[in-house]
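Form P-L/3: holo structure prediction, ligand adenosine monophosphate.
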Amino acid sequence: MRILVLNSGSSSVKYQLLDMDAGSVLATGLVERIGEPMGAIRHKRFPGSEREEAFAFEQPVPDHTTGLTRVIDLITAAETGVIAGVGEIDGVGHRIVHGGESFSAPTLIDAAVIDGIRAQVPLAPLHNPGGLAGIETALRLLPGVPNVAVFDTAFHQTMPAEAYRYAIPKQLYTDLKIRRYGFHGTSHFYVAKQCAKHLGKPFAETSCVTVHLGNGCSMAAVKNGKCIDTSMGLTPLAGLVMGTRSGDVDPALHAFLSDNKGLTIREIDAILNKQSGLKGMCGHNDMRDIHDRIAEGDQDAELALKVFCRRVTQYIGQYMAVLGGTDAICFTAGIGENDAVVRQLSCATLGSLGAVIDAERNMHAPRGRLAEISAAGSPVKICIIPTNEELEIASQTLEVLRNGKKEE
Ligand code: AMP
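OUTPUT (holo model):
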């Protein structure tokens, strides 16, 4: 079975074609700057194998239809492709950012599901329209191929009300569905399952804290295989410090900035989403650059790193407290998988909670595969678990196709 995974943003489409029987990635790539005068396309066939070949193109990509048409050309053409024709694609899995309260599982797409995703646009105005464009284009270009929506919010739908409700007037929840939703759910779910496998426990009996530290950062508390809390909220701005996002701030900040700087709500929102986080504190949003600056004596960079890690520590502690028993803490994504300093600083004081990091193991952990970095005998294991959202989307897509499951 070959599954095409599409992650359609407002101006980009990431794709991966997976051979689920062989367990391999046949092709992967990215179409960027859709709608701008000049678009960019990067494409690889047989990535990570001896036959790997990479291609790059610059050409205008006025809309998603053009972008996806080009993707299909690339994966089917003799010079760049991996399959003879679209007939060899068995299903398409779409990453959809917001499923609201309507979708708590991967869902076979039909007209009603498209309407359901459209109904969530007010909750994700920057993200869901891209996902919808991807779905509508795929349905047109690949007639007869089933499409499945996999929601970033779905894994978190098991949170109890005391975790997802905000202490604001009830009417705001009933009228506008203002509540915590959480994101990165596909990654948290995948990593938590890998953790259970590593520990040799049934997933339904595994409790862990999953720590996704990438461009965006979030954390989830997983109790007996179910998410019971997560750090992102109504939007992906809440919680941990991120590359350009502030994470948690005093909610009175908006009024304060409006009163004292005359900024509009939109301007404040842009500051918190795009000019804050690591970048706002030290001018760099890539953790590798921050380490370089620290080595040169940059104190702003050093403080940004400390603020970032302290927030991670605080959330881990919070989640261990609400879990009341944790098997493991699992670091994942770009920073979580690769940055030993961040892991060390984040876990340094967790020994009193039963999670003892082993500095040597952490510093010398192998790249790109699961590793345990806690000290021997640590009651709570600390692990590095590489995430794979595309594989998880493809697996969930396949499961829906096999079960013919559709959320009502
Ligand atoms: P992701 O969103 O998972 O692709 O993560 C991207 C982020 O991971 C980048 O912005 C970097 O801050 C971080 N990152 C990637 N590689 C490394 C590395 N080797 N060391 C530290 N941080 C890294």
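COMMENT: The chain is about 40% helix and 20% strand.
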